[in-house]
Each structure stands twice: as C-alpha cells, then as structure tokens.
Records
---
Amino acid sequence: MKRLVLVLFALLLSCLGETAVAQQNPVAGLPWQVGPVTVKLGTHATLNVPDGYAFLDAAGTRSLREIMHDPPSNGDQYTLAPKPIKWIALFSYQDTGYVKDDEKLDPDAILQSYRDGTTEANKQRRERGWDELNVIGWYAQPLYDSQIKSLTWSLLVENTGNHQRAVNYDTRLLGRHGVMGVTVVSAPDNLAAAITSFKSTLSGFQFAPGESYAEYRPGDRVAEYGLAALITGGALAVAAKKGLFTVIGSFLIAAWKFVLAGFVALSAWVKNLFKKKQSTQ
C-alpha cells in the first residue's frame, strides 16, 4: 500500500477523460478493458466491470507503475476507474487464511490505537525531518456487513506542517482462504460520491468457486487475527511480539507519507482540470 497514492496520482495525470491528452500519453496505450466486461482478479475472484468503467489487469497495472517510475508491489494489483476518472480503486488479494468474523469491533479503541501508533511514528518522522501527522478521526467508522462478509472504514489524517488532509476508503471482502482488499482514493471533497460510485460496482464482484467465505471447511488455514487487525494493517496480530504501538507506528510511517503527498497533488490536479474545462466552455 505504501505506493498506492503515487500510482493513483500518476494514473489521474494521464487524464483518460481528456481524449486529446490521452492520445499523447503512454498510459493510453495500456491494455485497458472497457466495460461492460467480466475480468479476473487473479485466480481468486471475478469482477463484472460495468459500462462507464475501465479496468487494468495485473500486467497492465505493473506497466502503469513502470511508466510512472513506481516500483512494483509484492503482489498483483488490479485497477478499476470510472470514465472520466474521478477516483480509482486498487484490488489486491491477501493470503491471510480464513478470518473469523465473530469479533466485535470497537471503533474508539481502534482509533486510539491508530493515534498512539501515530505518536510513535511521529518520533521517527521528526528524526527524518518529515512533517508530523495527526489522526483527526473516522470519516466513516468501521462497519462489518455479515451478510456479504464485507468490512469497510475510512480514516482522516492531517499533515501538521501544511495542514493538508488525506482520506481514503478501504474495503475488505472476506473469502475462504484470504481477503480481497480494495482501496478507493479520491479528492476529499469527492469521496462521498466516489464511495457511492464504487459500491455500485461491488454487485459484480464474486469469489471463484470454492473460494467464498461460506465454503469454509474444517481444516482450512485460519488467520491468527480477526477483523480489527485487518483495519490496522495486521498490526494487532503481531502486537504481542513487537509491541502494539511500535508495529502500528511502523505501518503508519510507511503508508501515510505517500497518502498525504498524493492527495496534495491530486487535489491540485482536480482543481486545475475543472478550471481548464470551465475556460474552454
């Protein structure tokens, strides 16, 4: 995830909604699959990409990262975006094992863990000369839907140096052997609309036969942690070994630096795009 928003910003700069720009940009030459079309998310799931959306498979997403000089992630990622692009979603499968969903989530406790972890991370940020971060709170509290086995949440953070804010929307779709993670990133003032748009595509998501949560069988590998750890990047699973705040702090210091940088650029790009459109009308 730590390069997530750099990929987002690079893709948005390609401006697929602007035909003239796209024709001159190598991103336009990537193997975009335009909906309606059914695509594979590796061997674990499929997605029905509706009309008005575009998709990049793992190879296309890797090519996208190479074009933008962005090192590849450890696992395969898949890109979904509306046309014209107003937000982007990255899908990635996490081989966690079967995550039991009988844990009762405590949003206040999870938020406090993030804040305490951020305090730890800020010590390292000061040593590196980076601006410190402040966890403002939930944009949307963690919510688990037991019917569709979906966990969602959205956290709002702020760079204390320039007061730029960042927010994204995370979804974890639970399966038999692992979890499909999806992160939706958008300009903060467009996030509500982006979430609504993204949710409309989830009806087309389906785990492959034998991979759904309901197909669990005794003897399947079970994750060492529950729902809360999915929110904190798995930190709670190893908290007893390394110390809770140190683990979460390490996770935050690796991720939020890129999130904040990306949103500063993204917000400026969106504003400039609208200004250009208005000037041509």
---
Amino acid sequence: MKRCGLCLVAACLVAACSSTSNDFAGDPQSEELIQKVDHEDEMDHEGHAHGHSTLREFVGASRPKLNVEVTADPVSGVNVHVTSDLQVEPSAASSEHVDGQGHYHLLVNGVKVLRFYNEWIHYSELAPGDHTVGVELASNDHSIYIWDGKKVSVETFISLKEPKEHHHHSDDFVEFVGASPTLDIEVIEDKKSGWNVYVELVGMLIDPVMGDGNHVDGAGHLHLYLNGEKTARLYGTATHIDSFPNGKVEVMVALYNNLHKPYAVNGETLSATALVVNTG
C-alpha cells in the first residue's frame, strides 16, 4: 500500500583530517551513457528496493569539481565538508532530471548510506578503525553523474580512534545573546522514499568549525528529534530521513551551540515542531 503523509507544520519557535578531490579528464560524451551501479538501495513507498541506479553524463563546458574533506568528530563519527559545481536543489529531489542539479550521496566503505543536501554533514555511525568515506554527485532523479565514463565521486581514507570527548545531553542550556532567532520547519514526504525536512532559520549562524570547539555567541548547529529521540546533528537547513515509524510522528529541530548545549531565551529552549501522520 502506498504511504500517505499528512504534514502539519509547526511554524513557531518554542520559546585526523583527510581531504580529496576528483581528477577527471576528457570532453563530455555526446550521448548519455546508461549503466548500472549496485549501491543505490533506497526503498519506494510500496516497500520495493531499488538496487541499481542509472549513470548520467554531466553536461558542462568543463569537468565538474568535487572536493571532499573528512575529519574525525571529537564526540562521534566524522564531519564531511563538500565543495562542488553541483547546483543542489533539495526541493527537486526525486523529481525530473535537470542538467547540473541534484544532491549528494554519502558512501562509507563503498556502500551508500544516505542522501544529503548540505555542504557540511555529520555522520555518527562509524566505529573506531579504518574506513573509506566518499561522496558522489546524483541527479534529481537519483541517477549518478559521470564524466567521460567515470563516476563523479571522491573517496578518502580515515582512521578513527576512540572519541576524546564523551558528553551527555542535560537540561543545562546557554542563554542566546541578542535578538531571539526565528525557526520554522516543514516536513514533506519524498516522492521516492522517506521524508524531507526543511528548516527556515533566521538569527543564528550554522557553522561547525567556528570557535574551534569553543562556544561562540550566536553560532552552532541543529539537532533533529523523532518522537523525542535525537536522530541526527544537522549543519544545514534541509535533510532527508529514510523512514518514519507508522502512526503519528513528532519531528523537532532544536538549536544548539558548538558545545552541544541547547540555546534558550529567558530560560526557554529554542525549537520548532511538526506533526506527521505516516500510514503504511
């Protein structure tokens, strides 16, 4: 049965480094190259896996740029920073192909683990040890971009040690200095699989490196919660969630500083909530 989603938008504020770039040569082929790759494994709304993706030639005057920097996060996993020529359009994901538009796929040890839309992403599901972390460019329709017959992708090696920091979230908060930020969220069912969360934030700077791990007034990141349970740390204003549990789901985004303490105004933490009804 096709999933049906009802989105109620709560547009209110409730109170070791490794870097790699691609190196492709050659001119664009005149015909689109159709091949299959095996790591695409998203589920459609009827529960069918898509085990393959089409390869699509990137159209442009020169080879597309893709630079990827992966650093160990002091608390968990890695932070990935991407710069590329891709025009990322989160609202166009799972729609028709447009030359030069799309999103990113995160690859861990050669396997696609998620879709993302932002220049920065945090990925926590990496145990200590040796890993390859990569990024590839994908079109709106989830086909993988290629240039001169090669995928536009970059993989880099990182060796993770046990985190130096162990933190537990508490009720301690940091009073926001200055005018209170405004925060709205919208949750929309993706046309292919999962859900997209869009954040509208004014008045706080999202910057994962500002302050070099120290508190900076007005800077920080977002935490994403599903039914009260934290599921992700966000460094941007759009994210894709693979799946929701059936029934009513409360989606909350909250503002945190770079020390992972919640921001508050007059003692009230800053967050926005949307309710989704997911039936399967």
---
Amino acid sequence: MKTKCLSIFFFCSIALVLSNNPVFSQDSEWVTVNGIAPIENVTKNEARKMAIANARREAVEKVVGVDILSETMVINYHVSGDVIRTIPHGKVIGQEIIKEEIELIPAKDKGEAPYLAYKVTMRANVIKEKGQIDVFFRLEAELNRTVFKEGDLIEIRVTPSRDCYLSIFNILEDETAIILFPNRFKQNNFVKANTSFAFPDDMDRKRGITLEAFLGEGKEKVDEIIHILALKEPLHFNTAKFKEGIFGIYDGRSAMVNDLVKNIVGIPLSHRAEKFIQYRITK
C-alpha cells in the first residue's frame, strides 16, 4: 500500500529480531521444530517462507497445545513474507534457523508421486498469553475489496462490539508495521460500540489523505495485511519506532511485526480484540 497525503508517498522494509526483554525470557519457552513446504507451483524462496511459517505454527502448538483454535496471519497467500499471529494464547517472539534443506518426500500412497519440499529446522521462542478472551468483544471489519489494481484506492471500515480504542496498522509483505490510525490528524482513537468507523473518511480525503495500492518497482503482485487492534484501555505506540503512514516521505525505518507483537502481548486477552484482513495488489 502507498499512503498519499498532499502528493507525498512512501514505502519500506524490515528484518526479524529476537527479544532481550527479561519479561519475555521469564514467560517464554524455546523449542526446536521443523517446518516443511512442498515446492509445487512456487519458487524455492516462496517455499522457504512457507516452511518457516509452518515451523512457527508448530512451535506455538508445541508450547501452548493443539486443542486451542489457531488464527494464522500469513502474507502473500503462503508465498512471501509470512507473518504468524498463530494461536491467540501464544505468540512467536524470536527465532533462530538451525538448518534448511530441500528434501525428496516419498509418496504416501500407491499411485502418488514423490515430491520436493523445503525443510526448515529452527528454534523458536514462544510466549504464552494469560487470561481469557472476551467473547463479546469482537470486530467486524472489511476493505472495499480484497484484490486491487495498482493505483486503486483502499478503504477500511471497522465496527467494534464494545467501546474501544482503535489502532490500524499496515503490514507489508516484508513484515514492516506502519501505523495508519491514530495519526497526527486524528489523535483521538476512541470508537463507541456498534459504530462504523471508516478510514480514510470524507474529512481525510479533503485533506488529501488516501490509501493507494502500490506494487513497488519490478513487482507483479504483492500481498499485505491490515491489522486492526481494539483495546479497552488507551495505548500509545511510540511513533519514533512505529512510523506514521500518513504524512511525509517514509525513511524505511519503521518497527517490525515482532515489535508490534511485543507491544501487544502483555495486554490481557480479555482487554483486546484483533482483526487481520489480507489483500492483494496486482498490475
């Protein structure tokens, strides 16, 4: 996505880091897991990212348990820049890849052919979340569409079931997290229950603020995520770290998804609701 304000545009990039916070070291657990992804109709690099995503999911299930429903946030339709939000009661906050290789997976049944797969062995640091989800605290959210042509305008609409403080992030396929709302023009992010909130709205558009689908140089398609976070209490994100995607030329130094996870994970499950909307941009 490219955010337009007064004809100024930006784009950005990111890398994954581990947490050195002592809180995480006390409440988290390192596990060693494998992730496998077939190299079928995808590139080697795409299969690698799929394997890493599968390993992260396996890590959370290993620490938290497989009896809990999983919610997975994956960028690029399991192809590129995979981001795992995984099980609501556990999050991956760090990882170390130990080994990666291509394996020939033998056929399981008669008549099936063996296939090549990308295999990743990794150590993952998983933190367990505490508390119970408030089942009555929900978000209804949608985009004006899920597939955009480059240059199309993207619109976000959100309706919370409870009074809340709303934050909206754009997660790029390289795992960069940019904050869209609140911003310097709209600092009050309180939204009443069952009220429809739109971004950008008519007032934003009058200021010249739009969300424009943007591919980036040399790309045929990209997949990104809109991450919507609703909290019962206000939380101010460090704008020196999480760059605002509203005004100015972005300098490429915003925080990562892992940084966002670390900001959120300490909030009790009963005090937050989240929604992830994936969309694709094509030529």
---
Amino acid sequence: LAGVLPFESGERVLGYKVETAYYAQHQLELLNPANDLLSELRRVSAEPSDRQLRSLLGAFLFVGDDVYKTVSVLSGGEKARLAIAKMLLKPANFILMDEPTNHLDIASREVLTDALEEYSGTLCFITHDRLLINQVANKIIEVKNGNIKIYLGDYDYYTEKRAENEAAPIFSSGSKPKSSSEDIKQRKHKEARLRNDYFRRSNPLKDEIEKTEDEISRLEEEKGYIEALYADETKCNDGAAMVEVTTRHQQVLGRIKALEARWEQLSMQDEKMRQELAEDLRSLND
C-alpha cells in the first residue's frame, strides 16, 4: 500500500490529489546520526522557521536545548518520535504506519495518539496495540485466508462482532447448509438489484466528481498563468491591469477552494455508498 514493495499482482491507484507519507521501523535507521534535531527536520523541508520546528519538536517532548542533541545520542523511543515528527512535517493527506507505537514509552505513546487523533487526513496503520486501535481507528480491516472483511467500528466493536459470528449455530457438516438452486437464484437477483441501485445512484455522483476534477485542473492552470503575470514588469507597472489580475486571482483561488471542498464531499458520499453496498452484499451471504 505504501508503494515500497512491488506487487505480486494487481496495482495501487491513488485518488485525486492524494499525497502519501509512510512510517515504519526501518526509517529510524535512515536518520542521520551526525545531525541535530533541527537539522534532521530540515532534511524534509527548509520552509518552516526554527520557531515552527521547535513547536513541532516540543509536541514530541523535545524541549529547550533538546533540539540541539545529535541523533546519535537519542534512545530508540526518541528516534521513533523524531521519525514520526519528520513524517508529519510532510504535506500528506494519507498516512500509512507500520507498528507506530513500537519502542515508544508511555509518554511518547500518548503524544503520538493525540497527534493521530487530531490528524484530519486518512490514516491506515498496522499494529498489535489494541489501545491505539480503540483510541484512533474507526474501521477495522481483517485479512484472513486471502480475503478481507471490513468492520465499521473500533477494536471493541470488531471483537464483539467476531464473537457473535463464532457463536453462530454450527451445522454438522462444519459449514452452512447447502443452498438450493432456488435460494441461489433469489440471492443472485437480490445482488443484481443492489448493484443496479448502487450504479443508478452513484453514476451521477461519479460524473460530478469527474467534472469537478476537470474544473479544478483548468483553474489550477489559470492560477499558474495569473501568478506568472506578477513577474511581468509591464503588468506590474500598469496599476489598472494589476488590479484586474489580482481580482481574478482571488476569484480563482476562492473557486478552487470551493470546488475542492465539494470534491471531498462528493468523494465521501461515494465512499459511503460503496461501503453500504459491500455491507448489503455481505449480509446476503452471511
């Protein structure tokens, strides 16, 4: 999912304007031992001020002169905190994490949990930390025997549903009783109705999403053209022309912001419809 290892089959297709960040234990080894903490963060981006970097490091319990420590003297937990701080410095709206609480002490773990709870993007993580799952996750994906099953809830909800499934009546054959051909036919008809209803409701939504993406792309191009005009000396010396350019620039920025908000809303509606379809189809086969 993180795009680090090649796929044995299939492909990974990222959504529109999705920017990923990845955290795993091996990233601790990628820290430069000779750097101090501020310098290590600057490897990610040179834009933030020292004050902003200090603020970020402070959120991960590096305060005062701690920012001048070299990476080589940090403990395993401190290196993990620094690596996570580096990841959060990147402008990503989709974060993937592999065992993020490994090597963290209690205080560091609480800092990480707070940061993840405040994160507004999409978070996908693998962990054995059940407390972290309960505090952060709102969807559990179970991978078993080459299949996946989605539970829309935290870890407590997941274990409750699993217990219910395991407590369901077990037939002597060790599986569900065989369905008659009529039962199978009826289920196929129900599945077809569900899928047709989904496509009927989702197609207009997908069309609007596509049109919104096209309009955003067009406005982004116009925005780039307008911003290039600011470097044009002839335009800069023409007060009336600059007022017109600036006004249009603000209009384009406002329109892009509105369209991006609309795109996010439409995408969430589409995701909800797909989840509802998956749940309905699953219930037919349970």
